[in-house]
Amino acid sequence: MKRLLFIHSYYSEYGGEDSVVDDELKFLKDYFHLESLLFFNKSNTITKAINTLNSSNKNYFSLSKLKKAVEEFKPEIVYIHNLWFSASLGLLDYLNEQEIPVIVKIHNLKVTCSIGTNYREGSLCHECSVNNKEKAIEYRCYKNSKTLTKISNRFGDSLFYKLNNFENIKKIIVLSPFHIDYFSFLGFDRNKLVISHNGVEIPKQYNTNPSNSKNLIYLGRLTQDKGILDLVEAMRISNNDFHLDVYGTGALLEKLQNLNLDNVTFHGFKRKQEIFKQFLNTRAVVFPTRLYEGQGMVPVEAGAYGVPTVSPNLGGMKQLYPEENYFMYQPFSIENLIEKIDLLKDDQLVNEQGLKNREHIVNNFQKERTVKHLVGLLEKYI
Fold it and tell me: In order of start, what are the domains of the chain with their CATH numbers?
């Protein structure tokens, strides 16, 4: 088997990208002689920032680990996810010097936004761009600090340059057609960009009649950017007999619980397998994100179980559903969100959409299919 070196720096708060990394590490070892170089952002943020600033985006600890791995393992290709803080961009410099082929997967918008989301104070924000992030410093976007924001900006600009100009970086994986267009608009070489989906296992048992239930599910962080405030407000003022089950934790949990709504129940954190069982007895999932999601996994997982999802037509969301989809709403519009939730009263429509969503997921996001595509992409550049 070919030798693959896998590099990732885990976030201080485990999230969706980290989950994708763990999943890929499990299946890639069946196709490659796999060595992983993993870093963890658990130390003091300011210390790491100063280290990065003083060393021209190089972390000498991570760089020494990479050099050792290259010398001993002799990778034929390197596959990278996140380099932000603990790993550092110095790894890209060294791999370029060694002329080792690299594939990079981008999950966020770090090249154009200091916090990687293009979201600020409740709305999408486009005041910054590549090499022009002065507004972010003014607003103290990263950790409410001008110093840390400057460092984050510097990282993003340097990342953009290296990804675009280093010849050993063969492909940049993004997660949707929207992100192909968006990154091309920013100035990325479109020929370097390629879509590779995150896949899901297709369960044999699925929800054939979601209309039998009156329950709706929200699964995710309880933060403003994930749209939970919009959804709870919609449940508060809408006129239907649906009940919302909320799975997840976050900064807004106490505030939302204090509303004491009879039609909303907060269950806290639950493992995904527990929630998947609930998909077998739910009417729909609501995914009210306010972000340019790369590939929201919740709608994909719900679709695999034959459950329709109500979500905004925003970022890469559209690719997650078949062309005929009745339950996408105008982003940031609570009124339109309520209209789509009320549309769930139509039993036939709910069942038909659930079946169509499942067929779409099977045809486009089935894990066997997505794994084959990723493996083929990695092998192509060895």
Answer: 3-199+367-380 (3.40.50.2000), 210-364 (3.40.50.2000)
